[in-house]
Model the fold of this input.
Amino acid sequence: GHWKHGGLVGIQGYGAGVIGRYTNLADKFPALREGFHTVRLHQPSGWFYTTKALNEVLDIWDKYGSGLLNMHGSTGDFVLLGTTTENLEPIFTDYLNAGWDLGGSSSDMRTPSCCNGMARCENSCFDTMDLCYNVSMAYQDELHRPAFPYKFKIKIAGCPNDCIASIARSDLAVIGTWKDDIQVDQAEMKAYADAGFDIQGEVIELCPTQCMKWDGSTLKINNSQCNRCIHCINLLPKALSPGKERGATLLVGGKAPILEGAQLASVMIPFIKMEEPYTEFHEFVEKLWDVWGENGNNRERIGEFILRVGLGNFVEACELEPDPNMVLHPRENPYIFYEEYIGDDDEDE
Done:
């Protein structure tokens, strides 16, 4: 069929969570005359389901919908494909009574998603699932009632492996990291070498910052030069592990190609502790929304907004201290412009 995206359909009191799908060929496909709308359900943190919960979702969907589903959408939602306008309120009521809620859509905070984190990964530097749940509950209004210039995605990864691909797919990427030295077990390093593992070729020579040395029995790391790529830890998990002072790096501006092409997120806060109640994190998120919401153009992602106004102006508006980690690459022209601040005393002179 030929589909018209969008439409004035939804759940009373909600401005998001349902994507209207209509056809311009209703005379040829009469069964689709009332629409074939998409419903997004808010997925649980880490996509952990019980069979009981899955059966509940599917039974309700069989009752009101087409039976088609997508696990999961690129944002992370449990996506239900194809129901009519008259069934939207009943299906929402049944899901709400079963303990489910709608996810995000349109120009709102999209449903946050995260990796399994500490539930399955020994490298996770903070509790990703707890943060994801915290964000979902704290920003119910932003999730259900679109008020932004465009969509805003938050994705949460527990370590630099970024298994959820947050740096490429989210407006705010939260990526676990550590601040102190990599933990090294020299006996396990020796065991790897004795077992025939090529530490020099597979680890030392592939280190992007060349911050490691191996003499055959002892590993030395210049931690001040380490960029936390986690390659060495992935290859030598018994001998190496992230440091003990753990938290996250916050990066802003990632997105798939729309207006300005694909962008990877850029560092805004190199290190932040990720512990309840996440006060510093919430303050940063809300400052981003204030600056972007006040000055962003319609359908302009925050990464495109930063490109338009300039990183320096954005950092200043967000009241952040400039940091070398924010710089993507060296400047491309030799001209340096200084802002002049003239006080009353200077004018009198």
